[in-house]
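Take a record:
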Amino acid sequence: MSKVYVYGVTDAAPFTASLDGVEDATEVRTVEHDPLAAVVSDVEEREPPRTDENVQAHDEVLRSVMTGGDGRTVVPMQFGMVFEGEGPLRNVLRSGRPTFTRSLNEVDGTFEFGVKVVAPDDGGVPPAVTESVSEELASASVAEADGDQFSDRLVLNRSYLVERAEREAFDDAIDRVRERHDSLTVRYTGPYAPYNFVDIHIGAER
């Protein structure tokens, strides 16, 4: 019997779409418990392997839900969330309704973007430059979350929460950083579901 793989939670407007999901799923649908809906596909395994293909499929499904049509706000689940069936999943939607609803409201109409700014090999970056880059990007976003400083050359490693309507303004801010600090390498990725701006923990009801 197929199990249910969950990508994220959105509002309870049902849909079915032909998308490439985790473990070669070809259809993504919703499981509803008003006013919420879980974005799901069917899988056979309780613990799908964390391959590059599966992780990419997880992210791409969420991106498609967020950007398709008029776009939908999504509270993302971490990779690997599987339920034995729709019943246990609906129980979690019911019991977690206040938390899911609050999180949907907090990230309503937003995308997450990742920004890494890397200094050249030949020296450090003055603190004033780091401050300038930070201020430029903060001005076009509504929240930010620091990532790991895994290299001495990292000037900045952050995730930014950006309103859908302000995406172009954030793109422009990235361009200004590149123009003003052309010795720096700016790695700009997204949009992603707002992983770093929600805090959802699912219990053992799966």
